[in-house]
Amino acid sequence: MSGSALFDTYARAPLAFERGEGCWMTTDSGERYLDFGAGIAVNALGHAHPHLVAALTEQAGKLWHVSNLYEVPGQRRLGERLVASTFADRVFFTNSGAEAIEGAIKTARRYHFVNGHPERFGVITFEGAFHGRTLATIAAGGQQKYLEGFGPKAAGFDQVPFDDIDAVEKLIGPETAAIMLEPVQGEGGIRAFPTQSLKRLRELCDKHGLLLIFDEVQCGVGRTGKLFAYEWSGVTPDIMAVAKGIGGGFPMAAVLATEEAASAMTPGVHGTTFGGNPLAMAVGNAVLDVLLADGFLDDVARKALLMKQGLAAIADEFPDVIQEIRGAGLMLGVKCKVSNAAFNAALREHKLLAVPAGDNVVRLLPALTITDADIREGLDRIRAAAASMSTQHAAAS
Ligand SMILES: *Cc1c(COP(=O)(O)O)cnc(C)c1O
């Protein structure tokens, strides 16, 4: 936008929101939108969730920041709770997804270094991946459009086609440290790795002494109907990056690791100023209170089914607009026949917010707290948007 003081890095929609409640957001001119984007899977519990508001405001009156020079009780508590609910034994808190991925990569490299293999620094990733926008994470993501113009690609990242496990096996060499993937690719267009592939990757890592890193920045924190997406497969990683939903909208993220994988991360080796500050930890603990409550995740899975069935019916009705519905839980992708940007714009005209992704997909990522009524309202709007783009006007009316 010319005339703005801001870097021109975002193609923003001409909308400014003033407040939100649950799955609804209201613009500064009073228009209400149904939010099926949730800040790109960040607002896991919707907008202005009373429990999160209470946790943040209570902490805000006590202490905001102390630095990691001191104990942070909220970190200990959230760390223990994440450990109790996952494969992990150790947690390191960061501020963003990319920073968590950087921490995961550093943890893997340092592990090999301390175990006498400084030459092992290579990380194998998959086409379509998105791991963030720092210099190392654009190298890990391997997408030319994000690498271009930023100097030499950071060394130590090699990529294979999506879900090509044979190619991974061929690429493993004496310099390989880790294999990294999103169990369900987000930006890449909501593409899930089959359980069988995850099992083979685990076997390859065990056979070659590599670390398996899962990027659950987008697919984690209840998004797929389990606390973490890897639970569907039964395959556990050695290291995992978590972000987006974990703060419910407050910027925070974490690296989770097994005792062994984290063993080389000793005092002074890594750090962050803001990571794990008391405000973030208060909100993170409050998010977990809700997610871990009895029956919450089962209800996410039930609502996800409702939404997927509704979307499948719309896809059947407008095959000239929608090619397929895919994804897991409340991380759903509408693979479009029309341009996904145009379909996303049509959704917005029907006052529904969604998020475009790669592979001509539009992502639907509503808050996990969405009501059945809001799902039905959303489906009505999605149907109307599809109808507006369909040439089958008879069917659409
Ligand atoms: C969003 C995302 C990231 C990067 O997170 P930031 O907080 O934007 O740095 C990394 N990996 C995945 C899978 C993501 O969806």
Automatic annotation (TrEMBL):
Q: How is the co-factor bound, per the entry? A: Binds 1 pyridoxal phosphate per subunit.
| Catalysis performed (reactions) | N(2)-acetyl-L-ornithine + 2-oxoglutarate = N-acetyl-L-glutamate 5-semialdehyde + L-glutamate
Under InterPro entries, the record lists: AcOrn/SuccOrn_fam (IPR004636), Aminotrans_3 (IPR005814), Aminotrans_3_PPA_site (IPR049704), Class-III_PLP-dep_AT (IPR050103), PyrdxlP-dep_Trfase (IPR015424), PyrdxlP-dep_Trfase_major (IPR015421), PyrdxlP-dep_Trfase_small (IPR015422)
Which biological pathway?
A: Amino-acid biosynthesis; L-arginine biosynthesis; N(2)-acetyl-L-ornithine from L-glutamate: step 4/4
One term of GO molecular function: transaminase activity
**What's the superkingdom here?**
Bacteria
Per the record, residues carrying N6-(pyridoxal phosphate)lysine are: K244
- Report the Pfam families cross-referenced here: Aminotran_3 (PF00202)
The positions annotated for binding N(2)-acetyl-L-ornithine are: R133, T272
Enzyme Commission code: 2.6.1.11
| Class of the enzyme per the UniProt entry, highest EC level | transferase
Listed cofactors: pyridoxal 5'-phosphate
Q: Which CDD domains match?
A: OAT_like
Coarse class of the protein's main subcellular location: cytoplasm
Q: Which controlled-vocabulary keywords does the entry list? A: Amino-acid biosynthesis, Aminotransferase, Arginine biosynthesis, Cytoplasm, Pyridoxal phosphate, Transferase
Localization terms from the record? Cytoplasm
Where does this protein hold pyridoxal 5'-phosphate?
A: G97, A98, F130, D215, E216, V217, Q218, T273
Q: Could you say which protein family the record assigns here?
A: Belongs to the class-III pyridoxal-phosphate-dependent aminotransferase family. ArgD subfamily.
* Additional remarks: May also have succinyldiaminopimelate aminotransferase activity, thus carrying out the corresponding step in lysine biosynthesis.
PANTHER family linked to this entry? AMINOTRANSFERASE CLASS III, SUCCINYLORNITHINE TRANSAMINASE
Assembly mode: Homodimer.
Q: What is this protein called?
A: Acetylornithine aminotransferase
Q: Which organism was this protein described from? A: Mesorhizobium marinum
